[in-house]
Specification:
single chain; mainly alpha; three-stranded parallel beta sheet; 3 strands; 71% helix
């Protein structure tokens, strides 16, 4: 550095500042919050790492046996299932979102929020309900045989309910709200000036839909379809009941049927690869294109009024998925519950409900605590490493429950063996199984899977709090923990409540992880419904199924009401062109 001379008359000499060394954004600062965030992220990533680690082990001749028998069927039916459900939710979700967003027709004001109600209906419960009614011995086919005098299945044709087509149908009917919700939000955000420009170029309503609305809403639609496909891959009850041979079923059978953990982990890794491929394909197809809205432009769309048969067709198109995906199964279950009330209620149902509520509540609390710590830790650190660590820790929602359950089993067994070996070496005593086969393992698995729900809600809430509030609180002497407790926590109550509701509902209806990780003699409402449906006695568990649906209604209705209040439109136009 050059020599500098200063004079007494100069109170502040002109000194050239030393260039600052650019900070390495990847390197986090070493403090308690950063280390705790990284440690927590590593803990929640450990089940997936356990799956990938054991997948590298030798599985013997299991793959040769699978390749010569069922592997091709697993892959084919998995791809057909996700292709069918993807097409189903895409058509239903986009069509209904477009109709309620752009047109005025009878019943629209109710349908725009009621179309979200199938979210409260688990796919496996809808499948059990419809199968009881539509199978050969059910009331529908029995009534048809009595009406037309048919004697055997050879006398008439009826679609096979327990089939790949049946699984695609019922999953599409209960999963389309993912696409509907995001597609409608995207349509609402589109500016009226775009439509004016498109119409000025001579485009009609149909051309505007295909060439303007859908391309601009494509990212939101793609996210909705991906969410529906993640739920499809996670489903266990429906595909098992319908004998659809998916990779998820394969993981379960190889682990427990063949007793070959490496082969099961390798199948689970195939599922993980499939998830990554689905998430990557849309980004590749999108390429370098970007989708932005000019929020300064007016966004109020005049609703085109559909009259006569057009209004009736729009009403039927929007009401059909709602009726088939929620109303019909709910009514059928209510009627069945009323008929079997005395034989299917009592202390057992109350115990099952208590167990389900306990698992869901503990999971919600764990997700809120972990999600808040991770989100706030990423906010404090701001480094790339910490941000990526929190993203990876919350990836569990994209992983099927069976795969996560396998990872937790491997992780818990390794931890138990490590602790037991240490205690034997140092104190000549055995600790046995500490985590495996306990409620803690089940809650941990559910927390890993549903962490993204609470983390995403809290991260979004934190982004709305200006960093200047943190700086002001720190300047007054508050440490990071005090800032979180006294500033952020009160402002995040809405985000905390939203995350808790979402996690609680998913915890109530979670089936595959509960089925694999529950302690002995521990049943929940979901496992109780699954077991009775497997014994062809769903009517004896219908009240438990109704409780699961009722638990999911509260947050769905709250979401529906808030959504119905957004995107207000101007008065309907007199006539659609």
């Amino acid at each position: 550095m050059h020599d500098m001379q200063t004079s007494p008359a100069s109170a502040a000499p002109a000194v050239s500042p030393i260039p600052a060394v650019p900070a390495l954004s990847w390197l986090p600062r070493v403090d308690g919050w950063t280390l705790g965030t990284l440690a927590l992220a590593a803990l929640f990533t450990s089940p997936l790492l356990a799956v990938l680690g054991i997948a590298l082990e030798n599985s013997g001749d299991a793959w040769a046996h699978l390749a010569s028998t069922v592997l091709g069927t697993y892959i084919r039916e998995t791809l057909l299932l996700i292709a069918g459900v993807g097409a189903g939710v895409l058509i239903i979700g986009v069509a209904t979102a477009w109709l309620v967003t752009m047109f005025e027709f009878p019943g629209r004001s109710v349908l725009q929020w009621a179309l979200l109600l199938p979210l409260a209906m688990p796919a496996y419960i809808a499948a059990y309900t419809y199968t009881d009614v539509l199978e050969f011995a059910g009331p529908v086919q029995t009534g048809l045989r009595q009406l037309f005098g048919w004697q055997s299945p050879g006398d008439y044709w009826f679609p096979e309910v327990r089939s790949l087509g049946g699984a695609v149908t019922f999953m599409s009917l209960v999963l389309y709200p993912y696409v509907y919700l995001l597609a409608r939000a995207a349509f609402v955000e589109q500016s009226q000036s775009l439509w004016d420009a498109a119409r000025g170029l001579g485009l009609g309503t149909r051309e505007c839909f295909w060439r303007v609305a859908v391309p601009l809403a494509r990212p939101a639609i793609a996210v909705g379809v991906l969410l529906a496909l993640m739920e499809t891959l996670n489903d266990f009850g429906t595909v098992d009941y319908f004998a659809v041979q998916t990779l998820t079923i394969g993981v379960y059978r190889v682990w427990f049927g063949m007793n070959n953990p490496p082969a099961a982990a390798q199948l689970a890794s195939m599922v993980l690869v499939l998830v990554l491929v689905m998430a990557t394909l849309e980004r590749i197809a999108r390429g370098r294109r970007r989708y932005q809205f000019n929020h300064s432009a007016p966004r109020r769309h005049p609703l085109a009024r559909l009259r006569g048969y057009r209004g009736l067709l729009a009403l039927c198109a929007c009401a059909a998925p709602l009726v088939l995906g929620f109303v019909v199964p709910a009514v059928l279950m209510a009627v069945s519950a009323a008929g079997s009330y005395g034989s299917s209620t009592g202390v057992d149902t109350l115990t099952l409900a208590f167990n389900s509520i306990a698992v869901a509540t503990l999971t919600a609390l764990a997700c809120l605590c972990a999600g808040l710590f991770l989100a706030y830790g990423a906010r404090l650190s701001g480094t790339t490493l910490v941000k990526w660590a929190t993203r990876v820790a919350s990836i569990g929602y994209t992983v099927p429950g069976v795969v996560l359950a396998v990872g937790v089993i491997i992780f818990a067994a390794a931890l138990d063996n490590t602790v037991d070996g240490f205690m034997r070496t140092r104190f000549q005593t055995s600790t046995g199984l500490i985590l495996s086969g306990t409620l803690c393992a089940l809650v941990f698995a559910c927390t890993v899977r549903f962490l993204a729900l609470s983390f995403g809600s809290l991260e979004a809430g934190l982004t709305k709090i200006t960093p200047s509030m943190d700086a002001a609180a720190r300047s007054l002497g508050h440490r990071p923990g005090g800032v979180l407790a006294r500033i952020h926590f009160p402002l995040l109550r809405g985000s905390l409540l939203t995350g808790a509701m979402l996690v609680f509902v998913d915890g109530m209806k979670e089936l595959p992880m509960t089925l694999l990780l529950r302690p002995f003699n521990f049943n929940t409402l979901a496992t109780h419904v699954y077991e009775y449906a497997s014994y062809e006695a769903f009517d004896q568990a219908v009240i438990a199924a109704l409780i699961i649906v009722a638990a999911g209604l509260a947050p769905v209705i709250a979401l529906s009401r808030s959504f119905a209040g957004s995107g207000r439109f101007s008065q309907p136009a007199d006539q659609v062109h």
